[in-house]
Amino acid sequence: MLREPKVLLFLFGAFWSTFAADALGDWWKDTFIYQIYPRSFKDSNGDGVGDLNGITSKLEHLVDIGVSTAWLSPIFVSPMVDFGYDIANFTDIDPIFGTLKDFERLTAKAKTLGLKVVLDFVPNHSSDKHPSFQKSIQRIKPYDEYYVWKDGKIVNGTRQPPNNWLSGFQGSAWEWNAQRGQYYLHQFAVGQPDLNYRSAALRKEMENVLAFWIARGADGFRIDAIALLFEDEGLRDEPVIPNTGLPPTDSGNLEHIYTRDLPEVYEVLKSWRKSVDVLGGDKKILLTEAYTTIPLAMKYYESGGIPMNFVFITNLTGSSKNRDFKRNIDRWLSSMPRGSYAANWVVGNHDNHRAASRFGRNRADQLSMLAGVLPGVGIIYNGDEIGMEDTSLTWDQTVDPAGCNAGPNKYSQYSRDPERTPYQWDNTISAGFSESNRTWLPVNPNYKTLNLLRQKMTVTSHYAVFKKLVGLKKLPVMKTGTAEVILMENNILGVVRRLPDASPVVLLINFSDINVVVDASTWLNVPEELNVYVVSVGVDIAAGTRVNATAFKIPPAASVILV
Ligand code: GLC
Description:
By secondary structure, this protein is of the alpha/beta class. It folds into two domains: 29-126 and 200-466, Glycosidases (TIM Barrel); 131-185, Oligo-1,6-glucosidase, Domain 2 (Oligo-1,6-glucosidase, domain 2, Alpha-Beta Complex). 28% of the residues lie in helices and 17% in strands. An eight-stranded parallel β-sheet has the order 13-12-11-5-2-1-15-14. It has a six-stranded antiparallel β-sheet with strand order 16-17-18-23-20-21. Alpha-D-glucopyranose binds next to loops.
């Protein structure tokens, strides 16, 4: 008897948290977010580089595939040392992409189409061409403290950087500036000096950037490299990890206890959450980019953000087993703080090899299908929806600083160019990306057969699979149902979503390269007969086929959704 009120309270609580989330306008819940890399999406003026008018002209594609949101990688004034992640003016558009007017047209059209627009906010660093950096060099107040400056160390009469910190793009994270007579910190390229978040004036200025873009139609931000905002005040050396096998210039040789995840980071995020919340309009999404541990990632939820979940990228590969997936998925879901928070699953991005290349062509749909069936938000990178693959590039074709700084022998281990080549729209010149046949990165030669138009005209395609996943997320069982990840025999993984009085949704993934027959009905406690909703490309079972779930044959490497 005593337990009943508790149960009622629990049910009411669950109902209320779902209801409250919607009432507060968490519009991103149970949708897909689509990352656009503007340089490579669509070129409207034939200069070989994608631009805002190009994106505007293709927004219907986002509506067609059913994503809720376009997140644009940086479009701001930049010398393009890191292709837009080095910003020389946080509140204007780079001419290569267009103008503020073009941006207004883009957001206006997005609004009429019901799409949200999320911008990339790059708070950790600016370009060395930013006027504030120039003033900082000259020690003009308050800019003198906008960046992280430090005297050199004199060892045996020669000047050396203040400590052993290494840049994410190889070599010391410190660069000498003769004019100021000090070193400045750059955790990425030399042209990306780190901003100093211990300066109140700098913090205020960066907050104004958020307000500026919200006033111009941004629905939120993806916050770049947030974990790196603060460094140890004593600038202590970071511990060296022995025997990494990495080149000595690689920042992976250090344990980043003094340059990442400092507690102050979360305080700044909380202040950003507050400041965007008072600006009115729909609730703003703050997606945080931090490649970190799960407990530290969870702290972003509690600070008003959504930590991008990179487990599909950092913890899992094409040779992972069903148990590796289960462990990683369960760990994220069970670590999430209680309350109405959205889980999320990042399938790919502009910093990592494409999903179809990481997992192999025959598993190109696997991650999107997981992101579609698991609770929360799926985050895909432009081209994932058609199974685009990495482009292999020579040293001479390499432009990414991460690749260039690694040199001709190692560039391919570091370069992010392979995943950044132009979007493959059709089989015309430059894959329909540009009227020019000279594009900033070469088009993948496979575009003649791997392109959106062709997939639209084919019955089975990655495009068709993706569209069905978006449809699935709209079902009540996907929004509020339970999620179980179950290890089955012979390297099969099952994911089941259940809601009382609704048909369960079942995803089966074959992690082996042979046919496996399973009794999914018993393993997963689902009906003996189910219907095929969608299958990964390459599997020869038609959607709508009624199957016997007690002896269901899953082809090699296949992913199958049954309802
Ligand atoms: C983030 C971006 C990456 C960039 C780096 C420095 O990790 O995603 O592309 O190079 O920050 O801004």
